Amino acid sequence: MLSKKLVSILLDWNPFITMSKKLLSLILAAACAGVVGTRAQEAATPTETPEYSVTVAPSFVSQYMFRGVRLGGASFQPYVEFDSSNWGLGVWSSFPFKAEDTVSDPELDVYGFYTVTINDSLSVVPGFTWYNYPHAVEGAYETTFEPSVALNYTVAGVKLTPKLYYDLVLDGATYELTAAYALPLTAIGTELDFTATAGTYLWKDSADADPKVKNWGDYWQVGAAMPFKVTAKSTLTVGAAYVEGRNNYYKSGTDHKEENSEACGRGVVTVTYAYTF
Q: Span 4-43+59-276: which CATH code?
């Protein structure tokens, strides 16, 4: 689990948000340099025919929570992902079972990533998410674009993933740290996957309005999931988590800040069936 000191450090990142554009540019440039170097080396060395896979995964959640903010209730959230070697490209979606004023019906997000492996315990993963809200609620943007870069480091069986996002439309950064640990359950042929995440963000232009509307907040979550092998190519995963958002406010121009009532604590149950071919 994350220590109190580590969480405190995460939530104190806000003073550095003004540096995030430059920091993201430097990190992405370094990651891309690594990608170019890797591809150049691969081009000079004969390789085997790359393997490809496609995963189709219908998923159901009891609550739709995003960075500590409740965007809706029970939802159907399927995704499709294409993977080849170190990179992947996918489409994630969300369809609420009940229409609400706080959520777009549907949400369709395109995402991609490339993994640069440094060694057995360290990798860098630049990526992006293109968010699309065809029926965006009043005042919300219909589309935003968020590049990101993550660092995966495994020590003593614990995978630590600090990650930096920067939304180019909302004009703001999100800083996040995740710790993950898989507990083998060999007696029943599966494992129990534990995760803990803490993050903070500041968006300078969170709504399609004039003057601009700032939105900032902190969030954390803890959860566990258990995958069950159904067939050689399919897995059923059942998970449960507690997600909480706090210190979340909106501020328009020179007006006083207003608390975001949708930033709250909720328990979330997830059921996902993934088939890979």
A: 2.40.160.40
